[in-house]
Amino acid sequence: MARAADDIERAHLRDPSDRSFTIHRYGAPEHLRGLLRRFWIPVWDVPAPEQSVQKVLQYPVCLLITTPAYSRFGGPTRGLSRTVLEGRSWGFGAMFTPAAGSLLLGRPVSTITDQSIELDEVFPGLTVKLRELMAADPDDIGAHAEGRTLVQERLEPLLPLDEESLLINDLTEAAETDLSITSVVELCHRFDLNERSLQRLCNRRLGLTPLWLIRRRRLHEAADRLRESSGSLADVAAVLGYADQAHFSRDFKTATGMTPGEFARMNAAAD
Prior knowledge:
- There is one protein chain.
- With 271 residues, the protein is of the alpha+beta class.
- The chain folds into two domains: 21-158, Sandwich (Jelly Rolls), CATH 2.60.120; 163-269, Homeodomain-like (Arc Repressor Mutant, subunit A).
- Helix content is 41%, strand content 18%.
- The strands form two sheets. Strands 1, 2, 4, 5, 7, 8 and 9 form a seven-stranded antiparallel sheet that branches.
- Strand 4 and strand 5 form a beta hairpin.
- Helix 2 packs antiparallel against helix 3, helix 7 (210-227) crosses helix 10 (260-269) and helix 8 (233-239) crosses helix 9 (245-256).
């Protein structure tokens, strides 16, 4: 059985002092890793009248999320995603790969960028089954396993992936992980595409621009380094390719609502 973990991933701008929730995370089975990145299952208990606001700089992928209150298939969010947790409840989530979105939708992902649709439009009947499984004990790893199987079975018919699907997965991985790629031109050269073809591919399969991929990677990397207190703000800005600290600070605050210094201090206070 896959191991559940409660770690802080780079996209989640979590306040380390917030102990109101636990997140169970499970990886995808090997044969489905071209379509599925991971499952995440948050369980929370927030005393009334308090709220816990979760902020996420999302990855360039589509998401599935079911709770007792709603059930959605979400497109990529270009800005900062905010979710308000209240009371005692749970969510069952799946993060797909860049290739999976348009295959599941049957149309370009750009049609649901910054939007969501009812989950049953994509996975008919899944909402009721997931809610039945999770209702008794949302921390039950057996229920988690059954829920994961339900989702995985819906993905099987999409295999094997075609060449374009493999390409968009590889291209996105490079943009997300290779710090040497700092421009759209470099991404074009890496994958032997002209800029117009790259733009069209990313719009159709991701609902995003190539430049967005690079900028989001820089923000994720910035959050990682600020959590670790790795160097001065000027050092972090230089490593990420910014011309100066002021430009870096503006970008980070625009995207997250916090200055780099505020984010670093929030994480340092929990150490």
